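Review form for a predicted model. The reviewer records the input and the model, then writes brief findings.
Reviewer: anonymous (R2)
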Amino acid sequence: MQQTIILHPLEGHDTLKGSINLIGTKYMTLVAMNDGENISFQEFLEKVALKDPDYILAVRSSIAAPTVFLKRSLQEVRVNSYSAACLKAWRANMDLQFVIDVYACAIYIASYITKTQRGMSELLTAACKEANSGNKTIREQVRLISKNFLNAFEISAQEASYLSLQLPLKKSSRQVIFINTSPPDQRVVLLKPQNQLQSMND
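Model under review:
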């Protein structure tokens, strides 16, 4: 892109269908091009026989949601979005994105933090059974479980050590108590066992 721009997906107008099909073919040519060619943007447009408005339409035909396209030369097509100030402090790879759709951002965060690790649970269960079988010392059992854990999931060495040794990852000096503030007729209730009901005050 010659400048940073927010593009929206194309509407399904009949008047644009013919142009979109032609531009879509051109877009596949763009995708097939080699990365990082040392040519200017104008030379690039001439090479694919597109004018700037048609190039924008070709890009818009490939997206399904509003998307931010950053100003990049052809040599920088594989460069992630970054902050120059953060890069000086972080000195590592980063991929920053503008939040355009708040709902999509919330869904992404929620799905990321609630993703299941069923495969990991099954692996650790099998590792524990293997560690308990035979005459292994505590050190050998911990080493076996740690080896399976470290080789199956990408986490820091510190976190792997804490989890393998069953050390708490966090502590709190305050106790949290849930208070149901929903109206009484809308609260979810669970039946208590008889012995618990008998021990409760009237």
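Findings: The chain has a mean pLDDT of 78.
Further findings: The chain has two domains: 5-110, 118-164.
Recommendation: see findings above.
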